[in-house]
Amino acid sequence: MDAILTDDENELRPELVLVVDDDEMMRDLAVAALEQAGFFVAEAENGVVALEQFRQLQPDIVLLDVMMPEMDGFATCRSLRALAAGRDVPILMMTGLDDTRAIEEAYDAGATDFVTKPIHWALLRHRVRYMLRSSKAIHDLRVSEARLSKAHRIAHMGSWEWDVLNDKFYWSQEIATIFTVDPDGFDSSYAAFLNIIHPLDKELCNKAFEDACSFQRPISLDHQIVLPRGDERYCHTEGEVDTDESGRVLYISGTIQDITERKRIEDQVRSLAYYDSITGLPNRVLFGELLERALTFARRYRKKVAVLFLDLDRFKEINDTLGHAVGDDLLREVSERLKHCIRGYDSVWQGLGATEGTPVARLGGDEFTVIMEDIQDSNGVIAASQRILQLLSDPFLLDEGEICVSASIGISIFPDDGEDAMTLVRNADTAMYHAKREGRNNAQFFMQALNDAACERLQLERQLRKALANEEFVLYYQPQIDAGSGAIVGLEALIRWQSPELGFVPPVNFIPFAEESGQIMLIDEWVVHAACRQVAAWLAQGITPPRVAVNLSGCHFLKKSLVEMVAECLQNFALEGRHLEVELTEGVIMRDVEQATATLAELKRMGVTVSIDDFGTGYSSLSYLRRFPIDTLKIDRSFITGVTKDTDGAAITTAIISMATSMRLEIVAEGVETAEQMNFLLERGCSVMQGYLFCRPVPPDEITRLLVEGLAMP
Length: 714
Hints:
Residues 16-132 form the Response regulatory domain. It comes from Geomonas anaerohicana. Residues 219-271 form the PAC domain. By secondary structure, this protein is α/β, with parallel strands linked by helices. It is built from 28 helices and 26 strands. The strands form five sheets. Strands 18-19-21-22-23-24-25-26 form an eight-stranded mixed β-barrel, surrounded by five helices. Helix 6 packs antiparallel against helix 7 (145-155), helix 17 packs across helix 18 and helix 19 runs parallel beside helix 21. The radius of gyration is 38 Å and the shape is elongated.
């Protein structure tokens, strides 16, 4: 027996929504969204169950899926409309189908409206509320004309009635306001009404009115209108059919509501939720949904899908030097080139409103992705990648001038490199970093070896984060010897990492990771602090140590906080600047000459010595040496190795010694391992040396003994 509720009871209880879908996950998502919005929700897994539930519960609105077993959504909708209680209930059809035929069939079946999947659940709640509000407005029209008139004014909604037999429209004043016409001087025929409808929506509206006349179906649709001055607005039209005793249609009456503002807000919300605000491309959220859809299609038809992960090379430098506005302009230009470069792989985009059907998305920053569907082999992917690289290599002409940029591309293939979206994106990202390590401006396919290496890197980064807190670092010291007298004239502090999990990790293995992760500044600070602490300990023991040289990373050197950090460490241990030497490479100080000059000047004012490490491998220019307050040149070990065997190495080393002597700079030769090398250097006026011939890097206790007892010369 059907439940019967009075009008008062209906007024008091919350609206009941019947969700009909064979997909349990979709039902769960819908129930969660609607219950959170305050609705009562009932569920049905197919059309047969839905009809039984409808008879028992008499819901206020039905959310109906199209593709279901036993009875599909169209048949269910027709059956609901055949019930007395189902004639006016709003039916919102949820479908992944997006062709015109499906839309027409939905309306033919009696659907009030439809929404395509994937569904934006926040918008769905608003859509349900709106449909219920419109349905209630029609009910109130029959109950109280005055109440309806007031509601219409508030909701920008007007009432209308079409005398079908005499072809005459009767409009309320609110509709005349919406249409911006004078109802007294306006032709009130159906043809005149249809003339106001936007040309793109005329067929849809005409079909709705024809079906109302032929099949006594209610009208419920969104459409655009064109005002007399050419302005366009969005309206929602509802209508019901009145017949005589013989079933002949006499009147169709209903409402028209101006929903322009609602449409604008919906578009704005959708844009914020699914599209990147700078480029207009799909964002990370929409990209994820589209990739899932592409993979579903690929699994069903045994197809391959490629994911291209693209990162602009050195984009941060452009942002930092030219400003974020220029960076945003560049991102927009890059996105335009990418959209026009990738064609023919956009089936997942159809019907989802993405700009020009492009399969390109921006994940954030300077990261872009491309989905390529139905690929036959890697050749097509390679060709597309090369087109992208070639297109991006052409200079970008912006208002600020000509900007050149390149890209690194990582590629993963479904199902070879992963069977789910998350794995494919992660592996494409890994391949992209491999492309950067291979010199940038190239594309690389994912290989399992890359993933293994990435896992090792991740483990190393995790352990590195704990190393400082757990005091796993230690400083070793290698003496710098005056080979003429045998005296220790300097010490180079060299960091060592003894990890409990990884064992001994050489600096060459962890310093690059520290620079990438930004931890290098903390490590630099620890090194300077540890070196100062050790010097203070020696002084407390009555030992007068030589100056201690510390190596600083390039990224830290160019930070203004470096000088403050060094000054604070010296002050904390009551040391003078002469106890400390800062070692830098040529390339570091040439990155930003102005900042380097200022930083070096500040260090010199504190009395800190400055040396150039690995001299001869970089710029090696007298012109820049004269510009900077440098005390010492360290000749790179690669030249020292060949001084007794290679005439070029000997000539370069001799030239460096002569140049430094003429500029009154101290000289330290690194990597001295044989007596022949030592004698060669002494003969040419370089007496300070460092290398295994004299002493390997040793821990603090051992270097303390050497400072006290002296070092035996070879």
